[in-house]
User: Which sequence fits this backbone?
């Protein structure tokens, strides 16, 4: 009888200690041993990747699945297939754009029922903090959400309204009582305006970077007063880096993320509404500064903010088009393409997109190739190029700003707890 279920070996295994040759041995869905590459232990199945890199599965903590209620935008079956194809083995679903939004335990139960049996990767859930639901936050926490999302400006859907300062502090006070985490869409509505016209420059001008900075400062002040844990979502403006860094020096428990589109695209490249998102893609100097903030650790992690819609909502008028980027399957190659050109090793990309995102959500069995961790593994060819064809992506609607763009890095194989995930395998993802 073989000692292990599976051994995957590579001369380039990315571990918390760096990249090294190893044989990764799996038993019962868990990494049970790490052995020398040249001395793999006995197993029922052996895979030798040679010089193809073996990564821990990515953890994307910012995904809008939209099921139930808006499943024609995106659903659990399609979103999780796209995730697996892109090397993402765990997603955490956002509480809005589905109906009902995940703002109480009953709505969470509805969402979990909708997801059951459909998921190709593991799925966790954020709860939502909206005006008047402070009493629902602890029951949501007890039911298993990983934290709570709020908006400080309109969310784009009426059923998920924003919090004003009093509402933010009330929610933070409740969440701090059980040491939960608040994740914040930080734009100050006082600095947002209606676009003056249909073009992208007019849309960009309506959402200045200062609106993000001022909102971050409001969150910092509230978190400092209350002692709450907070996380700033999808930082697009480098003006946020200074208050984030200052808050950490002052002892505020604050983290922040950015997204592939802010790190790889710029305003001068915007061609159509598939590029529209909130906050918006800004200029190249801002993009360079975000990279500096990421390299310095002021920004902790990189997530997709996959927020799809049906094609009819992506009208040519930037003022009216749905704001959301579809990129769940493309985050790893998009970030790696740019990171490599800027001199960052693949180990840093794994840290930003797997290790730190797992830590953000408290997913202790995810985010690393280490004994005792879930055997979520990705064979990644980090030198292969491909041209993005939106029609061939696994998410539901064939829309992405990366269409036609050449990226470097191809996911060859994805394993979820030691089992290979393909388009034809039965969905075995767990609801976390």
Assistant:
């Amino acid at each position: 009888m073989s000692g292990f279920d599976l051994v995957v070996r590579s001369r380039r295994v990315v571990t918390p200690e760096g990249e090294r040759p190893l044989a990764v041995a799996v038993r019962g869905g868990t990494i049970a041993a790490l052995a020398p590459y040249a001395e793999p232990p006995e197993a029922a199945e052996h895979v030798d990747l040679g010089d193809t890199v073996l990564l821990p599965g990515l953890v994307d903590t910012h995904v809008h699945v939209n099921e139930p209620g808006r499943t024609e935008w995106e659903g659990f079956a399609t979103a999780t297939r796209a995730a697996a194809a892109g090397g993402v083995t765990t997603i955490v679903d956002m509480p809005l754009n589905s109906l009902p939004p995940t703002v109480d335990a009953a709505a969470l139960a509805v969402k979990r029922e909708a997801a059951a049996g459909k998921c190709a990767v593991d799925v966790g859930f954020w709860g939502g903090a909206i005006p008047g639901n402070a009493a629902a936050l602890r029951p949501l926490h007890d039911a298993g959400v990983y934290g709570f999302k709020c908006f400080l400006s309109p969310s784009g859907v009426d059923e998920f309204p924003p919090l004003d300062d009093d509402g933010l502090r009330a929610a933070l006070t409740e969440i701090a009582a059980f040491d939960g985490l608040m994740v914040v869409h930080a734009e100050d509505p006082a600095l947002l305006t209606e676009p003056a016209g249909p073009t992208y420059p007019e849309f960009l001008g309506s959402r200045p970077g200062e609106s993000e900075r001022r909102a971050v400062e409001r969150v910092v002040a509230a978190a400092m007063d209350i002692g709450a844990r907070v996380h700033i979502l999808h930082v697009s403006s480098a003006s946020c880096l200074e208050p984030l860094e200052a808050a950490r020096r002052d002892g505020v428990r604050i983290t922040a993320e950015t997204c592939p589109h802010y790190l790889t695209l710029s305003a001068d490249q915007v061609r159509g509404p598939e590029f529209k998102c909130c906050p918006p893609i800004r200029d190249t100097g801002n993009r360079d500064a975000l990279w500096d903030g990421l390299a310095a650790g002021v920004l902790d992690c990189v997530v997709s903010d996959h927020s799809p819609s049906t094609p009819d909502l992506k009208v040519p008028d930037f003022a009216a088009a749905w704001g959301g980027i579809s990129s769940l399957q493309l985050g790893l190659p998009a970030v790696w393409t740019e990171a490599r050109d800027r001199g960052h090793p693949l180990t840093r990309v794994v840290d930003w997109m797997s290790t730190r995102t797992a830590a953000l959500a408290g997913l202790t069995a995810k985010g690393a190739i280490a004994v005792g961790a879930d055997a979520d593994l990705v064979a990644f060819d980090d030198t292969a190029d491909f041209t993005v064809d939106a029609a061939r992506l696994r998410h539901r609607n064939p829309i992405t700003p990366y269409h036609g763009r050449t990226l470097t890095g191809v996911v060859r194989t994805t394993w979820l707890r030691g089992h290979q995930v393909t388009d034809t395998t039965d969905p075995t993802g767990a609801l976390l």
